[in-house]
Amino acid sequence: MSIFNEDYIEDAAKACQYLSILRPELIVPPIMKKLFLSIDNITEPGRFTLIMKCLPGIICQIVRQTSNYSEGQTYVLTLMMSILPCIDSNDFEKIAVTLEVLDAILKLVPCIDCSSAIHTRNDLTEIIHQKIIKFLTGSLFSSKVRKFVAGLVRVIIKVNPIEILKYLLPQTCEHIENIMNNSQTAILMDHKGDIELTWHLVLFSELVRARGDTLLIYKQMIMSVFHQCIRIVHKDSYEAIAKAAKHLLKSLSDLYSIDDQLSLENMDESFVDCLPIRAWGQHVDFDQLQVQYHFPTVDEIDFACEFVNTFIYAELQLLNEKCLNLSKEERLRSLTLIHYIAVGCLRMVSRIESNQVIDLVPTVVPYGSKYRFRYSIYSKEPKFRDNLRMRLLIDIGNLLDILVENHCDDVASINTAINIYALLPIYYGISQYDINKLCQYIGLNEALFKYKLGGKRQNPRFLTIKQITIQIKKFELYHFETFTEIDKQIVLKLFKLSINRYSDIRSNAQINLFTIVNDYFFSYQVIVDHIYAMLNRSDKVDHDQIKGCLYILLGDNYFFLPTQPSWTMMEKLWPSIIVCINHTNKLSIKTLIDEISTRISEEFHMHALIEDINEMSMRAATNLWDQLKPNEMETCKERNQNNIQSYNNLMETLNLLLNDDKLTWGQHQISMSLMCLLLQKRVPIPLSCIRTLVDFIVHDNIELRKYAVIGMTALCRLQKPPRVYVEKSLDEILRH
């Protein structure tokens, strides 16, 4: 009965999933009976939705054929035919649960032509192909419907790329060329666009997702489409052609699995030896996966390099020569195309060689890695006209300066240029967003199909292949390069854009800035002094710049600057956060400061002030490593002294702020909360701070009194002598 209680439906769904694993013959039939009854019952449509939410978890037991229960497969066709009419455009929740159930079934059931198994018809494949072609090429879809139909094409092109390309790609290219030839040049500059052309470009962009080697025979056809459509200024059309460029380059140059089918058996063989129904929902042993991968061939690399050399350099030349004369739409079209081509090809472009930034932290130990996890998968080195990263760095960097100075209101173009600029130091074919998206996909599927009640892993084959893929992607993402002068130049330009007066530009630049500084160890040090100078300016203050700096301090889910392990940074920034509110009375800035102080209180953990290393550890390290010079051995002592000095300065500054009558009680509360976080017993706490804590116990403000009591309590605990442990034998303990 809990199935029909909306408050407990999630728990009921999990219970049904686990019980169906144990006794499917007792769980599956009653649920299916209730489902079919709810479909016929139009007076209580909510019952159908609630039951459907329980189905994805038990689909694996329905489609699987086991010795204890094999009748579940008889429900599959009836179930699919029964719930298809339930896709109701007026009820989004019903659509969502219905598509989730269909998705779960089709992930575990191979869809092939089984007509020869019962000798009712020779072959249905050709008829299915004709219906798909007629549906895709003979219809025009609105912008919302295009996404769903494009998803259909994306699936079928991965399953059988050779056949689908043969039927669809020539027709699609022919349609595009006919439209372009009939319209002459008018359609290129038509901002309204042509709905038929836009749809065929979207279809074309999905078709070039096919495996790289299958696209080679259509090379001339593909290049012809790009030559004809590359200068279209209609937004949906040029975005489709830009996505087609990215998909094409990734198909040609990336490493990816090409066989995700459920079973290793050949489904096209005679059904006398194997019936596909017996593979429904079955798992494959990890040692017998036989995963096949696409490795780029020489011809594919040449095709990708030719494509990049043909189009990206022409767009860069156009922007360099006519940037100020182009319209906003033309400029955005060109930058969008460059962005998508860069995303598709930067995997093949080597890193820019530059000098390493030194003295980010006082240490003789390299904080980068001497190993560069950047292994080439190409049998032939890709060749471009020059180092594409350096060319983009120079051209896009200059373009950003020109746009900010002369067209600062062209926010869309500036943001696209920022996205290109931020790719250069960290992008090698995979991003953190791609990893998170793939992890989410795997997590959702594991929740449905993982056999949690057994000790042995029994995932479907496609899920195990995805798990292997994500490990490869993570290996590609975490490259551990050292922070160079080129990277520093990019970080500083992004910081400058992060305090721009336009909020959209600030936000986009900050997102890219956080990604880079989180990728390189201690790279945040290069912006600390700039933030400190901005927050402590004595002249007229720009509120947008102050807000931009505060948002950088607030960070994102992965990076939070005020709690990074650097006492010199904390000495500069913590007091600046408190006093910068004096520059403005805007509520938004006060709210930002409150959010920063709250997050510091939640995430700050006391960093080491004195790094003690005993003599035995030092001797062992000396034996394992190169012999250090005498002056290098003093680095640790100097660092400890600098940490202690920064700590004392920070505590004294916070104490001065607490005793400053010009500050508000809100600023005093932030100062007191930060001081309480810094209490420790390795270094003597300044007496002035202790005196302030005692004085504030009787303060007029109740919040300050609470913090003072907390601080005094912490001080008293820190004064407790350490416990002395005496070692005694078991006989001595028992004797007493």
Any overview of this molecule?
There is one protein chain. By secondary structure, this protein is mainly alpha-helical. Among the domains are: 2-109; 259-267 and 276-293 and 430-478, no CATH class; 606-614 and 631-736, no CATH class. It is built from 32 helices and 2 strands. It has helices spanning 9-22, 24-40, 45-63, 76-83, 92-108, 115-118, 125-137, 143-159, 161-183, 195-207, 212-215, 219-229, 235-253, 298-322, 328-345, 388-406, 411-423, 432-449, 461-477, 485-498, 503-519, 525-535, 543-554, 567-579, 587-603, 615-624, 630-633, 635-658, 665-677, 687-695, 702-718, 730-735; strands at 256-257, 293-294. The chain has a two-stranded antiparallel ribbon with strand order 1-2. α8 (143-159) packs parallel to α10 and α23 runs parallel beside α25 (587-603). The protein is globular, with a radius of gyration of 32 Å. Residues 6-118, 122-321 form the Proteasome activator Blm10 middle HEAT repeats region domain.
Strand count, sense and closure of the main sheet? 2 strands, antiparallel
Number of strands: 2
Strand coverage percent: under 5%
Which structural class do you get from the secondary structure elements?
Answer: mainly alpha
Number of helices: 32
Rounded mean pLDDT is 84
Strand arrangement in the largest pleated sheet:
1-2
Distance between the termini: 61 Å
Give the overall silhouette.
globular
Question: What is the topology?
Answer:
Blueprint: H1 9-22, H2 24-40, H3 45-63, H4 76-83, H5 92-108, H6 115-118, H7 125-137, H8 143-159, H9 161-183, H10 195-207, H11 212-215, H12 219-229, H13 235-253, E1 256-257, E2 293-294, H14 298-322, H15 328-345, H16 388-406, H17 411-423, H18 432-449, H19 461-477, H20 485-498, H21 503-519, H22 525-535, H23 543-554, H24 567-579, H25 587-603, H26 615-624, H27 630-633, H28 635-658, H29 665-677, H30 687-695, H31 702-718, H32 730-735
Antiparallel strand pairs: 1-2
Helix pairs in contact: 1-2, 1-3, 2-3, 3-5, 8-9, 8-10, 9-10, 9-12, 10-13, 13-14, 13-15, 14-15, 15-17, 16-17, 17-21, 18-19, 20-21, 21-23, 22-24, 23-25, 24-28, 24-29, 25-29, 28-29, 29-31, 30-31
